[in-house]
């Protein structure tokens, strides 16, 4: 699901839209059934092997419904039961990707992308089917869409230096990226220090993984994301830190996630007095350690060393964030004016448009 440029639908798409319109009038339940079975197939594909009970929990569907649907998909040769759980057959995989454009059309995702990009002033918005709040496998679909787009802009813009933050959203993009040969050496650097206990989601680990996928080089940044004022000032005097900051600010592309302000503050173990400050000043979104209100004003920045929203280099920014509950956070960060590209999901996109339309 790579999105598209704002050139409008072509003649084939218009014809298909007309057929879908008439089909929905005559047999609306057929469209609903198609979307449901596509969602089940896609969820199995990204989580395979997976049992029915876990699948039902992931999709928040009744076990009886999932059993009936997967039994049907198995008789069609699209799903296969193995000792470890259900897996998608080669024919099933072909069906998933063959239906992709039709599902996008049925859900109006292309129109959704174009309206969001226009209202937010972004160069491109990519919307994948589903809601991360309802189905965790949607993150992998966002990662795949982001990886496809990343390949495109690396070649188109002749990117030579990339900065990446930590987090599951950024990791999903890099994990979905195949090994490619850009034809030049690309340097990948962490955009910030690390926090949390999960090694694979740290900026250092993601930078190394992305460099490996691109056949390029990477640098490590051994600095915690949260520092005391004294420690921060002392580290800024270190030559290695100064060199890393120089490389970060030279990045032509910054890939990052977007979080809920209070949720991210708690994950960073910020003092309660600062969390209260965020709440009082209306902070709703967070990106690169900057906490912003609904109008895009930075109300607080984490004590760290690295890129932040107020000091971003003149680079392209690719944000990856989904789930309906993230809609206000994404809108807040977009209001700062620093975003260029956004990969999100249907749940967040619909919620954002609802808010934007009410404003107008």
Automatic annotation (TrEMBL):
One of its GO terms (molecular function) is DNA binding. Transmembrane segments: none annotated. It holds the Pfam family Sugar-bind. Keywords: DNA-binding, Transcription, Transcription regulation. This is Central glycolytic genes regulator. Residues 34-103 form the CggR N-terminal DNA binding domain. The keyword Transcription regulation applies. It comes from Carboxydocella thermautotrophica. Belongs to the SorC transcriptional regulatory family. It comes from the Bacteria. Residues 107-354 form the Sugar-binding domain.
């Amino acid at each position: 699901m790579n999105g598209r440029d704002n050139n409008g639908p072509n003649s084939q798409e218009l014809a298909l839209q007309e057929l879908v319109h008439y089909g929905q009038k005559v047999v609306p339940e057929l469209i609903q059934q198609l979307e449901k079975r596509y969602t089940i197939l896609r969820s199995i594909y990204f989580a395979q092997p997976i049992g029915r009970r876990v699948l039902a929990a992931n999709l928040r569907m009744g076990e009886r419904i999932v059993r009936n649907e997967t039994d049907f998909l198995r008789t069609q040769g699209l799903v296969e039961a193995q000792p470890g759980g259900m897996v998608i057959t080669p024919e099933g995989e072909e069906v998933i990707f063959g239906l992709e454009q039709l599902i996008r059309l049925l859900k109006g995702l292309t129109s959704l992308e174009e309206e969001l990009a226009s209202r937010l002033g972004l160069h491109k918005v990519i919307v994948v089917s589903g809601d991360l709040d309802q189905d965790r496998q949607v993150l992998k679909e966002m990662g795949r869409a982001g990886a496809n787009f990343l390949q495109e802009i690396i070649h188109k813009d002749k990117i030579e230096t990339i900065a990446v933050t930590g987090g599951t959203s950024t990791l999903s993009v890099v994990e979905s990226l195949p090994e490619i040969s850009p034809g030049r050496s690309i340097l990948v650097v962490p955009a910030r220090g690390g926090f949390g206990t999960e090694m694979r989601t740290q900026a250092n680990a993601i930078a190394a993984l992305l460099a490996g996928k691109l056949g390029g080089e990477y640098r490590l940044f051994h600095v915690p994301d949260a520092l005391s004022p004294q420690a921060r000032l002392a580290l800024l005097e270190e030559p290695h830190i100064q060199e890393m900051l120089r490389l970060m600010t030279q990045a032509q592309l910054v890939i990052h996630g977007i979080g809920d302000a209070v949720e991210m503050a708690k994950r960073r173990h910020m003092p309660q007095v600062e969390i209260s400050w965020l709440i009082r000043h209306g902070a709703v979104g967070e990106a690169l350690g900057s906490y912003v209100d609904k109008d895009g004003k930075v109300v607080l920045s984490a004590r760290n060393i690295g890129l932040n929203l107020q000091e971003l280099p003149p680079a392209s920014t690719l944000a990856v964030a989904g789930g309906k509950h993230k809609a206000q956070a994404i809108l807040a960060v977009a209001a700062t004016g620093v975003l260029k590209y956004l990969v999100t999901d249907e749940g967040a996109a619909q919620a954002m448009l609802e808010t934007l339309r009410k404003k107008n």
